[in-house]
Design goal:
Layout: E1 23-28, E2 33-39, H1 45-53, E3 66-70, H2 73-91, E4 98-107, E5 131-136, E6 145-150, H3 163-177, E7 192-198, E8 204-209, E9 214-216, E10 232-241
Antiparallel strand pairs: 1-2, 2-8, 3-4, 4-10, 5-8, 5-10, 6-7, 6-9
């Protein structure tokens, strides 16, 4: 369930306080997609990692190649108080309050166990008003997030109108060349082109529209620990304007 913003600002506990001053807005691709990076996002990232280690992680959706645990709704309310004005500035405004869902996330699936759909870039949905956030809380050999263009269609983001054409083209790709190898995508070849990437620096966060084709940057030769203190831990969140 989406978490509405609190009616008044709340003082964040130290572990969940945000530092939002060191941020950079960039654009990429011919579509001029907006992407905002925030360095030093959490005031106390090590305390948040400790909190993550106390959670009960579980496989929530078949699409995500790992396990997740929901973020405390009170934390979502605290963060929305600080982030809502910035989301309006970066991606809106839509004239409505923002709602938020968020999870601790750990990529744990070995490459050889991936389903074919997990070996391709993906979107979080076709609604361009849904904004994704990735907060990187790992110091592993794995990276951040990469963004892609589908070669046959030229699409690097999907709307509801685009999706049928895109899905048919991907099916034609597979019919012509076979299923992708069981591995996390790297450069996207042969059917996708990598057009942008963020490195996933520890305690940095990146915001982008969730309908852009993207994938986590996962080293197929590096370990994927289920321990939040050792694995590829992120906090991923989705923001969308409340229904009007």
């Amino acid at each position: 369930m989406a978490i509405p913003p609190a009616p008044s600002a709340q003082a964040a506990p130290h572990a969940w306080g945000l530092s939002l001053a060191d941020r950079e807005a960039t654009r990429f691709s011919a579509a001029n997609h907006a992407l905002v990076s925030v360095t030093g996002f959490l005031d106390a990232p090590e305390e948040v990692i400790l909190q993550a280690s106390l959670q009960k992680f579980a496989k929530i959706t078949p699409q995500y190649p790992g396990v997740r645990a929901a973020l405390d709704p009170d934390v979502c309310r605290i963060w929305l108080g600080s982030l809502s004005p910035l989301l309006d500035q970066w991606f809106g405004p839509y004239g409505r309050p923002w709602e938020m869902q968020a999870w601790y996330s750990l990529v744990t699936t070995p490459p050889h166990e991936l389903a074919p759909i997990q070996c391709l870039p993906h979107v979080d949905g076709t609604d361009p008003t849904q904004i994704a956030m990735m907060l990187y809380l790992h110091r592993t050999g794995h990276g951040g997030t990469a963004f892609f263009r589908h070669r046959a269609t030229g699409l690097d983001s999907l709307t509801a109108a685009d999706y049928p054409r895109y899905a048919a083209a991907v099916q034609a790709d597979v019919a012509r060349t076979g299923l992708p190898p069981a591995a996390y995508t790297t450069d996207g070849a042969p059917h996708f082109e990598r057009i942008h990437a963020v490195p996933g620096t520890f305690n940095s966060a990146v915001f982008y529209r969730g309908n852009i084709l993207h994938s986590g940057i996962i080293d197929n030769n590096a370990a994927l620990s289920p321990d939040p203190r050792e694995g590829r831990l992120t906090i991923n969140a989705f923001f969308r304007p409340a229904a009007g």
